[in-house]
Amino acid sequence: MSTDAEMAVYGKAAIYLRKPEKERIEAQNKPFDAKSACYVVDDKELYVKGTIKSKDGGKVTVIVNDTKEERVAKEDDVHPMNPPKFDKIEDMAMMTHLNEPSVLYNLKERYAAWMIYTYSGLFCATVNPYKWLPVYDAEVVAAYRGKKRMEAPPHIFSVSDNAYQFMLTDRENQSVLITGESGAGKTVNTKRVIQYFATVAVQGDKKKEQTPGKMQGSLEDQIIAANPLLEAYGNAKTVRNDNSSRFVSSLLCMYIQYSCGESGAGKTVNTKRVIQYFATVAVQGDKKKEQTPGKMQGSLEDQIIAANPLLEAYGNAKTVRNDNSSRFVT
Ligand SMILES: Nc1ncnc2c1ncn2[C@@H]1O[C@H](COP(=O)(O)OP(=O)(O)OP(=O)(O)O)[C@@H](O)[C@H]1O
Ligand SMILES: [Mg+2]
Questions:
Q1: 41, 94, 196, 277: which is deepest, by most CB within 10 A?
Q2: Start and end residues for every CATH 2.30.30.360 domain found in the chain
Q3: Which residues form the Myosin motor domain (predicted)?
Q4: Contact, 163 vs 176, CB < 8 A?
Q5: pLDDT, tens digit (0-9, with 9 covering 90-100), for 16-35
């Protein structure tokens, strides 16, 4: 586990990614009795922490830690607790007791400390903070760059970087599956994956220079300019999300296309046409969907044009045959 000095590369994000050493050591040295510490089923809280007093047949008498109330529960409703060395553990697959209350409490306790990302083996579980934490800045991207999963605190950037590394080493396509209920944060995290790739792609090609007359804003600005493509097709309100994308009937896939043809042959123009085609099908395919007031309303063509910066922002430059060549895109 890292020292405070090693966490300094994450800047002001550090405190939201991993607790300071002193706090970790204190938490891990709390007194603990492995035989009696448990979680017991609770009608209101789902599970509460308790201490086993006695066992009799299939029945267990537990003292609830917070209220000191004594309760008798079925053996199946009492679950072992992990020792304090697993406090706010970053990968829940490492737990000695991998039971439901241990997983839920770990997520809850990390969330209470504003650590929203937690691994569970291959998965990265995210709890929506509903407030912006400073964990997506450029210095955080840089800190995750090239680090193996276990070398850095859990983060969507680590998932992104790993996919990127596997793509480079295995020369295989990679996918990141993002799933969850409405309002869980899928769209927000998808944008973060795009932000990561965009930043890494630009950093990776130092030789490339910005072309005068092309979009010059910060990468963040460019990503925001591309957001309409992510959000234009059918977003509407749900109980949990003012900006829900779950009414989008078709998944829009963006291909970074390495089709054949010399510079200027029409590859980028044709890629845009492919996107236009899918966009048209997506809109036509969902007749029930209505445009949401306040959302982007222009014609499909306008929306696609507004989204073009994403295609063009990352490294286009001039060649002999094409003023806006994308062959320098890493
Ligand atoms: N990591 C985060 N940091 C800050 N706010 C977040 C984060 N994730 C989600 N949110 C907040 O929650 C809202 C809903 O998130 P998002 O739109 O990503 O949900 P979703 O999973 O895509 O839902 P749906 O299935 O309805 O499209 C966001 O508009 C944002 O306000
Ligand atoms: Mg969404």
A1: 196
A2: 35-80
A3: 87-330
A4: yes
A5: 999 999 999 998 888 999 99
